[in-house]
Amino acid sequence: xxxxxxxxxxxxxxxxxxxxxxxxxxxxxxxxxxxxxxxxxxxxxxxxxxxxxxxxxxxxxxxxxxxxxxxxxxxxxxxxxxxxxxxxxxxxxxxxxxxxxxxxxxxxxxxxxxxxxxxxxxxxxxxxxxxxxxxxxxxxxxxxxxxxxxxxxxxxxxxxxxxxxxxxxxxxxxxxxx
Length: 178
What we know:
The chain has 178 residues and is mainly α. The protein has helices at 17-46, 48-60, 68-71, 78-108, 114-120, 122-146, 158-177.
């Protein structure tokens, strides 16, 4: 039997103030993830040059140590750079939409009984999962490790993606516990 997610706010007399506050914390992290995603998408649409350059430098590996053991991985095709950029942009849109929809369902079910609250978490988990796809799998696994951008002083996003990944993981844990 599955619990029904409600769109109208409901209050369960059994939900304590502390539980309500504890439900708010992952909601705020998820809402922040959606807001950050929206800003990233806006930046990539209105000023694509900065992040497009990032993708080009990482994929061409032109600022990493020249090592025949890794340089064979370099991709110098401008078409493939654009495909990668658009793919990342689509994934960032997914982060934004899933996180904002998840925030809506969590907010609508903030005071709901446990079954409805648990069912309302689905889009939140999907939003956090999409964030891990972008900032862990794409940026850290592919960018930093496959294209060894960790060697570049100017074209790596390890510090920023690590920060985002830690917040995302904290959000997942807090959502699970709430």
